[in-house]
């Protein structure tokens, strides 16, 4: 079974600084998707960024980028120029490609605090 | 383009009652997933449905829980004879295809069992 581990229950960063959230996963599959979702206090799950395992290039979305290390099974999220609106729970998630009928497997989340 | 809709947003039930949670996927999406989030936890997959079919219910408790996605109308997650441990946020997500990877989430239904 696939597992996703987020080892940082909480992180704090000064506004405008850069922060990196860690995620590791365990799978025997060679092809899969990885995601970072943001859950603000409204509890709405918002997709931040996605990475296909077959792509070597790290995904980037504006101030959000990932460091995908397939051999190490590591998928960290870097947030540059942190803003107050970035404060939220961040969840790393995995989904395999083969079969295609799977739900997402989530980590337990990292609570990101932005200090003004 | 309306997103995934869930209702009600909040639901209070006494122990032993039934809870019905509804989910309307994004327009054009025929794949629906239900997840449960307990306090201080990540989301846990429960069930995956396509129109009129349950594809994967490996995360669904064997008793009291059922789900459907009829040809017409929303997907329904039904919990019979609720217990306090069922108190959680229930999220629905939809996707355009089964292989597209991306799932778009609704705002969730917060179920409280008293």
Strand content of chain B: over 45%
Mean of all residue-level pLDDT scores of chain B: 92
State the helicity of chain B in percent bands. Answer: under 10%
The main pleated sheet of chain B reads as: 7 strands, mixed
- Largest chain interface and its two residue counts? A-B, 25 and 28 residues
The overall pLDDT average of chain A reads: 93
**Total count of strands of chain B:** 11
Task: Report the major sheet of chain A.
Answer: 6 strands, mixed
How many angstroms separate the termini of chain A? 41 Å
Structural class of the helix and strand makeup of chain B? mainly beta
Radius of gyration of chain A: 14 Å
In what range is the share of β-strand residues of chain A?
Answer: over 45%
The succession of helices and strands of chain B, N to C, reads EEEEEEEEEEE
Q: Give me the count of strands of chain A.
A: 12
**Count of alpha/pi helices of chain B:** 0
What is the count of DSSP helices of chain A, taking H or I runs of 4+ residues? 0
Q: State the low-pLDDT regions of chain A, or none.
A: none
Q: How are the SSEs ordered, and which strands pair?
A:
The complex is a heterodimer of chains A (116) and B (114).
Chain A: E1 3-5, E2 10-14, E3 19-21, E4 24-26, E5 32-39, E6 46-52, E7 60-61, E8 64-69, E9 74-79, E10 88-96, E11 105-106, E12 110-115
Parallel strand pairs in A: 2-12
Antiparallel strand pairs in A: 1-4, 3-9, 5-6, 5-10, 7-8, 8-9, 10-11, 10-12
Chain B: E1 5-7, E2 10-13, E3 19-24, E4 31-37, E5 43-50, E6 53-56, E7 65-68, E8 75-79, E9 88-95, E10 104-105, E11 109-113
Parallel strand pairs in B: 2-11
Antiparallel strand pairs in B: 1-3, 3-8, 4-5, 4-9, 5-6, 7-8, 9-10, 9-11
């Amino acid at each position: 079974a696939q597992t996703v581990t987020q080892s940082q229950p909480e992180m704090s960063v000064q506004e405008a600084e850069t922060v990196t959230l860690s995620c590791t996963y365990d799978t025997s599959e060679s092809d899969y998707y990885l995601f970072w979702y943001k859950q603000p206090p409204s509890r709405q799950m918002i997709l931040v960024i996605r990475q296909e395992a077959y792509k070597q290039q790290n995904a980037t979305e504006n101030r959000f980028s990932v460091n995908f290390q397939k051999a190490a099974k590591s998928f960290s999220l870097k947030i540059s120029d942190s803003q107050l609106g970035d404060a939220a729970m961040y969840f790393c998630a995995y989904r395999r490609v083969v079969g295609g009928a799977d739900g997402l497997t989530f980590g337990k989340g990292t609570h990101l605090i932005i200090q003004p | 383009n309306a997103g995934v809709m869930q209702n009600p947003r909040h639901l209070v039930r006494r122990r032993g009652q039934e809870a019905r949670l509804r989910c309307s996927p994004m327009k054009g999406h025929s794949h629906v997933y239900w997840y449960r989030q307990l306090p201080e936890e990540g989301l846990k997959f429960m069930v995956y449905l396509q129109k009129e079919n349950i594809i994967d219910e490996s995360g669904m408790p064997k008793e009291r829980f059922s789900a459907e996605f009829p040809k017409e109308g929303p997907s329904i997650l039904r919990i019979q004879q609720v217990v306090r441990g069922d108190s959680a946020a229930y999220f629905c997500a939809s996707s355009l295809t089964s292989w597209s990877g991306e799932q778009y989430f609704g705002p969730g239904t917060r179920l409280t069992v008293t």
